[in-house]
User: Fold this.
Amino acid sequence: MTDAPRGETSHDTIVASGLTKSFGVVRAVRGINLKLARSSTVALLGPNGAGKTTTIDMLIGLTQPDAGTVSLFGRSPRDAVKAGMIGAMTQTGQLIEYLSVRELVTMMAAIYPAPLDVEEALRISGAEDFAERQTRKLSGGETQRVRFAIALVADAELLVLDEPTVALDVEGRRDFWSAMRAFAARGKTVIFATHYLEEADAYADRIVLMSHGRIVADGAPTEIKATVGGRIIRATLPDVDLTSLQALRGVTTVDRKGDAVTLNCSDSDATLRDLLTAFPQVRDIEVRGAGLEEAFLELTLDPDEAAP
Amino acid sequence: MIEMTYLRYEVLRTWRNRRFLLFSLAFPLVLFLAVAGPHKGVIEDGVSLPLYWMTGMIAWGSMVAVISSGARIAAERAVGWTRQLRITPLPTWSYFSAKIFCGYMMALLSMIVLFAAGSLIGVRLDVTQWLVMIGLLLVGLVPFAVMGIMFGHLLKLDSLGPAIGGVTSLFALLGGAYGPLVTSGFLFDVVKCLPSYWLVQAGKTALVGGGWPLEAWVVVAAWSLVLSVLAVRVYQRDTKRI
Assistant:
């Protein structure tokens, strides 16, 4: 087993450049450049088929890119994996049988040079309650927790999670992410793939938005939201002229359904002041971020399909 | 180097897989008792029939044990476990070694069960004969252990049972585990190129004494080498695809 010196690493955890990968005629990844700073939590966000899993598989050396290079801590992915610097949870996969949860995690811990304490991994992942149970008797959500415990027990510098919450219910998801945060707080770098906008928004300090094998946006969640413009104001305002609403400061577009009006704003603070001054009778005011939902839809449209 | 904790749990998993354990041990045993039982103490042409059958069943049973153990990789591939292992520092060689170790453990268990059954119906051997026989069997099993690893990467789970059953039966039959098929002529020359023939002959050293001729070592080494090359190819193709 390789026992490489752990200090010998660069500032960046992942440096990927010019990654491409095709499967037959499907161009799954069409040129990805990515740099991950240490101790950051990054979401790889995109709809199904965006190339997230292929990208992740190339980052951790499970898939060989057609072109481009990946460097993890200044090493090749295979070498970084062999040195035990990566803990990963792939999208699908079950557990092997004839072991209890604790036995399986102990078995996996034994193959890492500096593993996390098994009990600690079980506790963080939430698998401690059923640690004595045989792996074949677990539910889908419990299996995910054990797979998370296996990724954690590596105690690796880099944690890679591919759609980790797919099999979980709402409560399970919340537990999962708080566990991930607890782990990241130890100064670890985390990259996770997801197609849930809220997850990327809530748990990552950087979002890399992917669509059709390319990165279409990259930045802090607030920046991603700003890319497609500000906020939305909804209010009840009967019998009002839409053009007078359009004239308010910071309004981009206006829409009306019955008595309810919707204002898309680039500067919602200014719009709101003007709105209250100009229409004191306005009721049921609701201001919300335009949200990643809109950003997502706009940015992930297929450029090939959108072109005439 | 095999990580000892890892190996310990692999052994535990084999031990807890009771169906695998029972079938691997029971089939050769039942066949042996059914055929040799009625011939307790019978000697034909100076050879004890129970001893003759015991050595044949030992060859067959241990062959099945090592092939099946490697082939269990197919089940772990099917659930995505081998993929999981490829993102850990566990060297591929250690993974295979653990499987081969468990296969040999099963093979030894199978031998012990058959020795015990044999001694119940009057088979007697001295210690040297036991040791020579076991030593040669362990060497003769190498090509089959490698074959198991190859099957584990070549076959899908649902085709595994018939494939192992067919291949081991064929090798055992041609190798003479159920009784000599041919003893002269061109076909005999072909049979002598099979690793199963020499596996059966390893058992037969208990009857006639002596060891393997040079030919045996060459055949076993050649099969081990060729199968290893094939197994590496199959493994590389399999891991590239995922």
About this structure: Strands of chain B lie at 43-44, 47-48.
